[in-house]
């Protein structure tokens, strides 16, 4: 069992599984590495750096011959030995490690040279940058009160703006078949459905796109959280919007799921909101009276009521039956009771409930 919690940059670069995942060569690795990213959030910055290096190296490698790459690695190793590596340390160095290190330095060097040639313009994604650089005049609303401020947009969408938060939007509101709102702070959105003109929220480097739904956006410091109440919402980092290779980082959120975006690391993770709410109408109260029900039926009921996917091995658990009466307990309390009753356990991964069980007799 690998100790991913102790992994450093070189460990990720040398890990065949990690490289295959980054390069998209084995989709079966998605669950493993997404789970590791979420399990060790302190490693996300290193994971991102390793991913960038691998992708940069792969991109640049396609433009160089093998002889040129070997020459660059040899030159860097020689330079490194002459300038900074004491002799006694060179004698103990592992060649595999240094090859990886040289690859890192080479990738950084090539990346720097490429950057120096292109000199991309800064990509400001702060609220002030959005507002000052927008080509059309914007209407700004600031909540200076100590209560939530209800705002009705021109398309009849409703925003509940929390104190000290502010939004801006263009007039006319629909431009180029887009409805765009720029947010600083926190706001709850009830978006009027309009499939011809999608609704976009820009907040601290994260783009949230919807057609018609209810969701909460909280932008504070370097993080942004998007919590979905109903409908479907997609989120993507602004830095990846125009990069087709990174568009696979776009996440789709369904009710009771949330995304957390780190602007510093340009990473998005998906999970379940702290207190999931039932999606059914009040006059159709769900029945949680499970009288010797197959566990598959129990999980199906919870999926339907809360809209949260369950992942489990039905072959192993096909002999598990549940006899328990639940009422208005919170979602996670129900989950605790069910799992304890049948001797199973669960964890949350990528916005799903993953059930682990050895089966029932």
Describe the structure.
It comes from Dyadobacter subterraneus. Pfam families: FecR, FecR_C. Residues 144-233 form the FecR protein domain. The chain crosses the membrane at residues 97-115. Helix 5 packs across helix 7 (95-118). 34% of the residues lie in helices and 29% in strands. It has eleven helices and 19 strands. With 361 residues, it is α+β, with helices and mostly antiparallel strands. It has a seven-stranded mixed beta sheet, with helices on one face. The protein has a seven-stranded antiparallel beta sheet with strand order 2-3-6-9-10-13-14. It has a three-stranded mixed beta sheet with strand order 16-19-18. 25% of the residues are buried. Mean pLDDT is 80; it is low at 79-95 and 112-122.
**Coarse shape:** flat
Count every beta strand, where a strand is a DSSP E run of 2 or more residues.
Answer: 19
Count every helix, treating DSSP H or I runs of 4 or more residues as helices: 11
**CA-based gyration radius:** 25 Å
| Strands ordered across the widest β-sheet | 1-4-5-7-8-11-12
Residue-averaged pLDDT: 80
Major sheet size, sense and barrel closure: 7 strands, mixed
Low-pLDDT regions: 79-95, 112-122
Percent of sequence in beta strands: 25-35%
Element string (H = helix, E = strand) = HHHHHHHHEEEEEEEEEEEEEEEHEHEHEE
Quaternary assembly: single chain
Content-based structural category: alpha+beta
């Amino acid at each position: 069992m690998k100790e991913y919690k102790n992994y450093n940059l070189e460990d990720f670069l040398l890990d065949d599984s990690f490289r295959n995942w980054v390069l998209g060569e084995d989709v079966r690795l998605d669950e493993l590495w997404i789970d590791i990213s979420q399990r060790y959030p302190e490693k996300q910055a290193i994971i991102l750096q390793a991913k960038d290096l691998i992708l940069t190296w792969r991109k640049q490698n396609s433009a160089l011959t093998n002889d040129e790459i070997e020459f660059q690695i040899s030159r860097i190793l020689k330079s490194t030995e002459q300038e900074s590596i004491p002799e006694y340390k060179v004698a103990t160095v592992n060649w595999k490690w240094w090859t990886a290190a040289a690859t890192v330095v080479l990738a950084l060097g090539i990346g720097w040279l490429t950057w120096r040639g292109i000199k991309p313009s800064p990509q400001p994604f702060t609220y002030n940058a959005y507002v000052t650089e927008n080509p059309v005049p914007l209407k700004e609303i600031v909540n200076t009160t100590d209560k939530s401020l209800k705002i009705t947009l021109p398309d009849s969408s409703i925003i509940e703006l929390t104190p000290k938060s502010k939004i801006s939007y263009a007039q006319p509101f629909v431009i180029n078949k887009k409805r765009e709102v720029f947010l600083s702070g926190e706001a709850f959105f009830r978006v009027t459905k309009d499939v011809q003109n999608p609704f976009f929220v820009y907040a601290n480097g994260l783009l949230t796109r919807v057609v018609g739904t209810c969701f909460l956006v909280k932008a504070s410091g370097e993080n942004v959280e998007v919590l979905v109440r109903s409908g479907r919402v997609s989120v993507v980092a602004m830095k990846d919007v125009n990069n087709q290779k990174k568009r696979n980082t776009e996440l789709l959120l369904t009710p009771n799921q949330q995304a957390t975006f780190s602007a510093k690391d340009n990473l998005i993770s998906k999970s379940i909101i702290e207190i999931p709410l039932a999606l059914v109408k009040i006059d159709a109260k769900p029945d949680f009276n499970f009288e010797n029900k197959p566990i598959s039926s129990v999980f199906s009921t919870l999926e339907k009521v809360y809209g949260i996917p369950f992942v489990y091995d039905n072959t192993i658990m096909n002999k598990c039956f549940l006899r328990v009466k639940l009422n208005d307990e919170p979602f996670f309390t129900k989950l605790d009771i069910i799992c304890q009753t049948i001797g199973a356990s669960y964890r949350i991964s990528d916005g799903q409930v993953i059930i682990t069980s050895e089966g029932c007799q």
